[in-house]
């Protein structure tokens, strides 16, 4: 989606002491435009800095797969705890995140800037902002959620008390519309290099854990949606093993033998994906035993992986929304902004309309809310 140009005035932050210790938090399910809103807010309330609270984006690598905001879309706003840690070294715990985020906001406050926390991991947001984080919550970032998120509707004894003065914004999109949009977004991610990114990732993993040949999918960034889903594909069609495979990547062209041409002037990635989907990928499998059957299988396993990514992304969105509702129940004052019409317009390919509604319904309203919060 295009970045928004907004004509509202720039609300420069007053440098008074009582404005310190205030944090803006942008929440919402995956795909709802949190990154975009954080940039819109940061440019409206200058100087602001953004802190990531997505537990996959915190790690280095898999930028397309985990949907990290590209540098050219950051409008020069500093981003923290994004693309920073190596998950193969050790996995961050909510305690690690709490102290890292703490350090980061202190630095941001000391520069007299406004911290904008943005990301879909509500357990991280909770773990960072809650007054007390119990030691029973000391699970790894990607194993499971904090205690109270797991237990069934039992809000008793869970404190909604916060360590900072927070302004919570929630971008909400009606589920049927979000579902359709997420499916479209997965297709766009595949087109823009997700498959190539994953195949390179699997190739490196192979070198690391030799006996297994395929990554464990259990820790850190390996839990990102896309990695487990493509496991079967890369097991059956290992990226490092196949000569043709490497050739396709290095040439950027796909050499098809059965009459369909994969050279579409696009990138190597889209040609590879295209030729898999067209059923004409030349997969030798060592010894050149390719053939129609193998190509058919490749296409089938590929489409299954894409479907699984779509399905799991949607399920993630549902879980995220439930967690936000849970946080509201324990007393967090989370203000909901309805972006359904924005995404309806996106699905109708009406980008002018979607931009207009975004500006009016999401940006203008949240700027008003944040302004009031900062003036209080
Ligand atoms: P839990 O700890 O119960 O998983 P959470 O709120 O801490 O919940 P989420 O951020 O909802 O964690 O992420 C849960 C899972 O969703 C991750 O382990 C990962 O599989 C997937 N996921 C989350 N964010 C991303 C992302 N940006 N890209 C890909 N997959 C993601």
From TrEMBL:
GO terms for cellular component: mitochondrion. Keywords: ATP-binding, Cytokinin biosynthesis, Nucleotide-binding, Transferase. The keyword Transferase applies. One of its GO terms (biological process) is cytokinin biosynthetic process. Pfam families: IPPT. InterPro entries: Dimethylallyltransferase (IPR039657), P-loop_NTPase (IPR027417). One of its GO terms (molecular function) is tRNA dimethylallyltransferase activity. It comes from the Eukaryota. Belongs to the IPP transferase family. This is Adenylate isopentenyltransferase. It comes from Papaver somniferum.
């Amino acid at each position: 989606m295009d970045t928004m140009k907004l004509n509202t005035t720039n609300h420069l932050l007053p440098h008074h002491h009582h404005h310190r210790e205030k944090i803006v938090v942008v929440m919402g399910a995956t795909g709802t435009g949190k990154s975009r809103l954080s940039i819109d807010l940061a440019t409206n309330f200058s100087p602001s800095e953004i802190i990531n609270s997505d537990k996959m984006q915190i790690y280095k690598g898999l930028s397309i797969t985990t949907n990290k905001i590209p540098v050219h879309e950051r409008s020069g706003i500093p981003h923290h705890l994004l693309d920073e840690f190596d998950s193969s070294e050790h996995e961050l715990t909510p305690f690690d995140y709490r102290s890292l985020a703490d350090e980061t906001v202190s630095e941001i406050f000391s520069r007299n800037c406004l911290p904008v926390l943005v990301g879909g991991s509500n357990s991280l947001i909770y773990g960072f902002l809650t007054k007390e984080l119990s030691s029973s919550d000391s699970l790894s970032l990607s194993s499971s959620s904090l205690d109270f998120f797991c237990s069934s509707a039992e809000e008793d004894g869970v404190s909604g008390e916060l360590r900072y003065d927070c302004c919570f914004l929630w971008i909400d999109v009606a589920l049927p519309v979000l579902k359709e949009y997420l499916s479209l977004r997965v297709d766009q991610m595949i087109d823009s290099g997700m498959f190539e990114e994953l195949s390179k990732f699997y190739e490196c993993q192979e070198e690391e854990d030799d006996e297994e040949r395929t990554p464990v999918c259990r820790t850190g960034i390996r839990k990102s949606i896309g990695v487990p889903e493509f496991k079967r594909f890369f097991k059956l069609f290992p990226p490092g093993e196949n000569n043709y495979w490497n050739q396709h990547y290095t040439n950027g062209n796909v050499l098809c033998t059965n009459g369909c041409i994969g050279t579409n002037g696009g990138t190597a990635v889209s040609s590879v994906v295209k030729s898999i989907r067209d059923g004409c990928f030349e997969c030798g499998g060592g010894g050149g035993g390719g053939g129609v059957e193998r190509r058919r299988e490749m296409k089938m396993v590929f489409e299954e992986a894409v479907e699984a990514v779509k399905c799991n992304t949607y399920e993630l969105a549902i879980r995220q929304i439930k967690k936000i509702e849970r946080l509201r129940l324990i007393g967090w004052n989370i203000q909901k902004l309805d972006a359904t019409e924005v995404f309806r317009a996106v699905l109708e390919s009406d980008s002018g309309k979607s931009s207009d509604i975004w500006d009016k319904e999401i940006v203008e309203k949240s700027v008003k809310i944040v302004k009031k919060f900062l003036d209080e």
